[in-house]
Design a protein that fits this description.
The protein has a domain at 66-117 and 119-190. The protein is globular and about 70 Å long. It is built from 16 helices and no strands. The protein is mainly α.
């Protein structure tokens, strides 16, 4: 079964959930409960204070976006022990097999920003640095898909654009190694949909790349799903639901895509179909809180 990787990280990376409405949180939490475990960080991260989030947004806007400058500022905010740890890592590379030492240091830095600081930018930056230096298809695609899983839930535009471009570069490097990897092609297209850009390119270029995969292999559920997302982003909601329905037919128990269908139909003003898909989720749910939220949503649509 193709369980969308975007759902797997929501509980592990709590900041992604803040922008979601209550029904989405309950719904995706249920999908997660059905999964074998957390896909991404593997730890529960506490929500930051509102003032900290506002300060972060202001910093990102002012920098527009320089990751080195950003991390220098973030490092200054750390306790002395944290600053000393980062300095010790930066000085750890010595003579000998410098490349392998540097890769190991980048991975340690990534883990520090993830586990000790709750800073996705730091985590993804050093994960990308390690993958690019290692330059294997496995490392590049792991880093690229990690970024892609986070992108749908990034709130700050400057941060989202920077991350989307990091993902784009990683997928491009992976495709140089293995040009026939459809997953990397779809991932590259998805990064364009979420804001990556090069001269003369944008979301439509991403959609075209993904469409090429879907036309060649209509059973590629990742491609069909991302074309649905592309339809939502571009405002072509009628096309979006067509793609989501293909995925729902292939995976009728995939709660995330059922919710995407219901939500998109609701945004189109098509209440009967929105009710149909919310009811489909309701029929599959045995969690009281979820059932209550779904029933309330359905009743509102019936008015």
């Amino acid at each position: 079964m193709f369980l969308f990787p975007y759902a797997f990280i929501l509980l592990a990376l709590r900041p992604l959930i803040w922008a979601m409405n209550k029904l989405q949180i309950i719904l995706i939490s249920t999908a997660l409960a059905l999964a074998a475990g957390l896909y991404f960080f593997g730890v529960t991260i506490p929500k930051k204070k509102e003032g900290e989030e506002q300060a972060k947004a202001q910093t990102l806007h002012q920098q527009g976006f320089d990751v080195d400058h950003y991390l220098q500022d973030e490092t200054k905010k750390l306790p002395l022990s944290g600053q000393q740890f980062i300095t010790s890592l930066e000085n750890e590379v010595k003579r000998g097999d410098v490349k392998d030492q540097q890769i190991a240091v980048y991975k340690q830095q990534a883990a520090f920003w993830r586990d000790s600081v709750d800073n996705p930018i730091g985590y993804f930056h050093f994960t990308e640095m390690a993958a690019s230096l290692e330059n294997s298809e496995k490392s590049l695609t792991f880093a690229a898909h990690s970024i892609l899983r986070y992108l749908p839930y990034v709130e700050h535009p400057e941060e989202k654009t920077w991350l989307a471009n990091q993902g784009r570069e990683l997928f491009e490097k992976a495709l140089l190694i293995q040009p026939s990897n459809d997953s990397s092609t779809v991932g590259l297209g998805a990064c364009y949909i979420y804001g990556a850009s090069t001269e003369g390119s944008g979301p439509m270029q991403g959609i075209l790349k993904i469409r090429g995969v879907a036309e060649r292999d209509s059973s590629n559920i990742f491609a069909q799903y991302m074309l649905g997302i592309g339809g939502v982003v571009s405002g072509q909601l009628d096309k979006a639901v067509q793609r989501f329905e293909i995925v729902a037919k292939a995976e009728p128990d995939n709660l995330e895509v059922l919710f995407k269908l219901a939500e998109t139909y609701e945004n189109m003003g098509d209440k009967p179909n929105a009710i149909k898909w919310y009811s489909a989720i309701l029929a599959k749910s045995n969690i009281p809180q979820m059932k209550k939220e779904l029933q309330q949503r359905i009743e509102l649509l019936k008015k």
